[in-house]
Design goal:
Blueprint (H helix, E strand, L loop, with lengths): L5 E3 L2 E3 L4 E7 L7 H9 L7 E5 L8 H9 L5 E4 L9 H14 L3 E4 L13 H38 L15 H10 L4 H8 L3 H15 L2
Helix pairs in contact: 3-4, 5-6, 6-7
Amino acid sequence: MIYPTGQKGGIIINSNNTYGYIRVSTREQNEDRQLIAMRELAVSKENIFMDKQSGKDFERPQYKRLIKKLKPDDVLYIKSIDRLGRNYVEILEQWRVLTKEKHIDIVVLDMPLLDTRRGKDLLGTFLSDIVLQVLSFVAENERTNIRQRQAEGIAAAKARGVRFGRPPKPLPENFQNAYQRWKRGAITGTAAAKECGMPLATFRYRAEICRKAENL
């Protein structure tokens, strides 16, 4: 276990310069797992920054506040590597900014090898960089696989006749009468749509559905 105060394994940690960053991808996703991890490390509440929005957009206000506050030799805890970015390139870039520009240490709790406080010699840095690149690639690849599985699941459901989205509103009682008169050319589409109390585009869309059904 990593202790946030005192000394452990040659690593001296000051609780005043330890921070935690948490991101959940939607407002509905639960952040408890990440919060519990930060509390176990005794990261002070005021030093925990949390964003509740998708990683597809890196405009994250709390992350920006954290970046401004970090000083050289501070320690940043994150639960997993994909909290830093939305893809392989972005994760690597944020890691570079934090370690090379801000000169802070990063500890990835789910992957003890990614602890920049350890192995600061050339070999240790080299091994950490290799692990980082592999894990970043794996994180992005997993997100890609999830999206592909979701798309395949939706396609399979549609093939079974499952409908997505809101069901269409029921047609007004006079729709068929107006549709048939419009179809014969007795009235214009604009007039038919007005009679049915719907926009012209909607009338034409529903009329096209009726036409296709008649030709089956």
